[in-house]
Amino acid sequence: MMNPLSGHAVVRSSAAARVMLARSGVLLFVLVLSGHPGQAAVHHRHGASRHPSLTPPSASRAALEAARAREIALRQQQQQEARRLANARQTDAQASALASQDRARATRLSAATVTAAGQLQDTEEKMQDITSRMSDLQEERRQVESELHADAQALAPVLPVAQRLSLYPVDTLLTQPLPADDTIRGLLVLRGLSTTIENRAETLRTHQAQLTQLNSTLAEQQHDLEALESRQTTQKDALARQADAARAAQLRSNAAAREAASRSADEARRNRELQAELAHIVATESAAMAQLQREAEQAERERRKREAAAAAARARSVSTPAASLPPVHSSGRQSSNAIVAGRLLSGWGERTEAGPASGNTYATAAGASVRSPCSGSVEFASPFRSYGQMLILNCGRGYRFVLGGLGSLNVATGQSLARGAAVGAMPASGSPTLLVQLRRGTKPVDPSTSL
């Protein structure tokens, strides 16, 4: 594994090489300062105390010592920073692993909503069917009630006579004496009227039975509808919990990724600043060493001149040769499912006031659930202009679904979805419509295209 400070290690190695070269050049000068025995003896013999020029300038020495002290401090800080960087990278790795787990959990939870969303959509479709049947039954009941009322109105005038005939038939016929022909004709009329009344009464009984049956059927349908509404509420709550859990997991993943990226950027910035300062200090130390080397070489030249002059003076005063100086040795170390339950209002390519339709538009029930039309990742999930909540889903291979007009969304940007997963719901009031548009690249295509 590459050291996280490998880039700086190169700078450090090259700087160390320059320092070693500089130090080898001023070794003699350092030995003079450290009091090497042989060299000190030479100084004693030749009166080094009488030559203050051999002492190096204190400013260069102080600058070198300050640079070395600062380098030591920076090396320690660099070690601390390396530990912090290692800890930060370990934390980032843990955060990345957690983010991956959250993304995977979000995907699993989103996929788990497929079944629940399908069940909820089946319930919604059944509710629509029952509502439609109840509407038809109620219309039929109104017609039967209207016919029943019309029959009752038609019988109203003759009911008193029919009632009197049923109670007092002889008195009713003999109220006023009439000729025999008129009496017979009246009896025939009464007979026909009786038949008509009987037929109308039978019709009334039939309509009344139909009305009773319709009321019973409507009561049963109403009971079924209430049961379905209760089931729908339960399914919606369960689906909302699943979808919210998936969305929360995705949001945690996004937050962890942003935090890890920010932390890594901060650590990398501090590391760059430390490397830059350390490189500056190494350059300062190298410059100080070079200055000391030049001063040491100058001091060495002056010393040799003085020694040569002293040796010549001694040669002139004595005949014995001067003892040779001991050698100086240097040593060092190197270092497929339906989108929504609804009715198609306009299909792709149909003529509209704005031109050919670029997608499908569905009329849905208020609060109807919406499902993912394909497997893919969420690129946009937010309100957009007058389209309400909008969802853009990348299905791969250049295809993207655009869903507009939703009332609420329970997915987040970056979330991976399975086909048929719950993505949101239509507005809870009014007459909502869902726009479904499929795009390939920048062009809309028929949403019925098989992906």
TrEMBL record:
One BP annotation, GO: proteolysis
Positions of the UniProt region annotated as Disordered: 42-62, 81-101, 250-272, 289-336
CDD domains for the chain: M23_peptidase
Coiled coil: 120-154, 204-231
InterPro entries: Cell_wall_metabolism_enzyme, Dup_hybrid_motif, M23ase_b-sheet_dom
Signal peptide per UniProt: none
Keywords of the record: Coiled coil, Hydrolase, Metal-binding, Metalloprotease, Protease, Zinc
Tree of life domain: Bacteria
M23ase beta-sheet core domain segment(s): 358-447
Compositionally biased residues, Low complexity: 81-90, 250-259
Transmembrane segments: none
Protein name: Peptidoglycan DD-metalloendopeptidase family protein
Cofactor(s) named in the record: Zn(2+)
UniProt biased composition (Basic and acidic residues): 260-272, 294-308
GO MF, one example: metal ion binding
